[in-house]
Amino acid sequence: MFSGSIFILRTLNKAFQIGGIKISTPVLLAPMSGITDYAFRILCREHGAGMVYSEFVSADGIIRENSKTLSLIRFSSKERPIGIQIFGSDPEVMSKAAEYVVTTFKPDLLDINFGCPVPKITKKGAGAAALKDLSLMDDITSAVVGAAGDTPVTVKMRAGWDKNSIVVPDVGTRLSKLGIKAITLHPRTSCQGYSGRADWSLIRTLVSNLNNHTDGGIPVIGNGDIQKPEDVLRMFEETGCDAVMVGRAALGNPWFFYQTAALLRGESTPDTPSLTDRIEMCHRHFELLIKDRGEQAGTNLMRKHFGWYIKGFPGAAKIRHKLVTASGLEEMRQMLRGLRNRQIKKFN
Ligand SMILES: Cc1cc2nc3c(=O)[nH]c(=O)nc-3n(C[C@H](O)[C@H](O)[C@H](O)COP(=O)(O)O)c2cc1C
After folding, report:
1. Which domain holds residue 153?
2. Of 238, 264, 290, which one is at a domain's C-terminal end?
């Protein structure tokens, strides 16, 4: 058993809340553009993710009521608690977008993206660009908090713009004083992209700045480089964070959340999913996508998910190739049915 098990159990017994929202398991699904849509969020919630997020949504698109943008925000009650993440560079636009989202969609919380490193976004002053201009960060934050009413506002950020401008030690209390209710930290710099390693010691720094704060502090959600359930325990132990957010490790792997929940309860990790489990999950994911996005978009979106689900067993590459290159809905459905029947026969 992990050396930090007593610490972990203490962490679990501590109710994890953001604003007034109670979150049952302190392991959350990260916002991921093009991935964390209705279908994937439902599957992760069903498998034990404590909370899920939309992908980042453009504040400009929201206030223009662009139908594609608004479709990224729509969610079902089964997904709650859910956070909607918005991005933008203009405090006034961010304020209007925040008001629109909380009144029209009523999410459990609103998250501000101060972490996206993609040049197309940062060139316009949005995402991680705010890490270079803390007064802009203040203005955006105050505008969103002011417009969100009773809905808690949180921030997801990177550690700084580059290695010479790490802002973590400065921004924690600054954001909490502006009314932010939790901070998620992915401790890489914007310039780093995904290279190198996430520096978890910066999560610890943020925790000690915020949790010891005299007004009671706000929760810190640690993020970055979680690859297996044991890493979640290690992040709790090494950083003292209140919750852990998981991104890439959940791709093709909604089981990650129930495996982690078992570990957090002090049990051993449940068996890794069998091929039959994977086929069933693909089937379910596919049907949810078709229901939500229609035949053409659902089929196209499912191709990348097949790539993540179908791996790690003999013959996976061949099956994956056939699924990813299938001509359309019917061929994919037939292939999944065929695979399922083959598995059932094998076990009878
Ligand atoms: C494909 C992809 C899309 C992402 N989209 C978003 C996003 O919309 N908003 C956001 O805050 N972070 C986004 N991220 C960053 C993740 O939320 C997370 O911070 C990052 O992947 C590090 O966590 P991980 O090591 O657990 O994957 C994205 C990451 C990936 C891989």
Report:
1. 5-264
2. 264
